[in-house]
Every structure is written in C-alpha cells, then in structure tokens.
Amino acid sequence: MIKHTVCFKLKDNSEEMINKTVDILKSMDGNVPMLKGIEVGKDFLGSPRSYDIILTVTLESPQKLDEYQQDSYHCNVVKKHMHSVIEASVAVDYEI
Question: How far from chain centre, in Å, is Cα 26?
C-alpha cells in the first residue's frame, strides 16, 4: 500500500477559500476509482510555517499512484483548481 500526502499553502487562505478547496479535494472520494482511502484536513494553528490543508490518499501500489496522477477527474477538476489557488505545496509518497 502507498500513502500519498500533500500539504498546500493557499494564496488566499480565507476560511471561505479553504473550505471550498477542502470540498473539492474530498470530492475525489467516489470519483477517483483507484483511491482506497482519503483524508483531508485544515490547519488550525496558523503559525508562519503552517500549511493550510493536508491531503492523504491511500493507493494499492506505485502503479496505482501513477494512474491516480493521470486520472481524468483528478486532473480536470482537482488539479485544475489546486494549481489556480496554491502558493506552495510539498509532497511525500511512502509505502505502508
């Protein structure tokens, strides 16, 4: 199993934009078939080094991670939104 975790820092980190972005990320549940699990969280601390949102998805294998990266819903809905709103992101992919 693979965990793909991404932290996002938004250009506009208003509560409204964070909530909209969280909803878009969560919309992958049921729309991206290779996901075995998804977690989305909002930062509550707001420190200077904090990122605004974290996404963790669980996939069966590195091959499924590759499929996820090319999935049409992920690319055309989620990535399109994320690329328009993020200031920065960091990712970690690891086996569990």
Answer: 8
Can you give the pTM of this predicted structure?
0.95
Per the structure, the complete domain to which residue 55 belongs is given by 2-95
CATH at 75:
3.30.70.100
Number of domains composing the chain: 1
Per-residue pLDDT tens for 19-62? Answer: 999 999 999 999 999 999 999 999 999 999 999 999 999 999 99
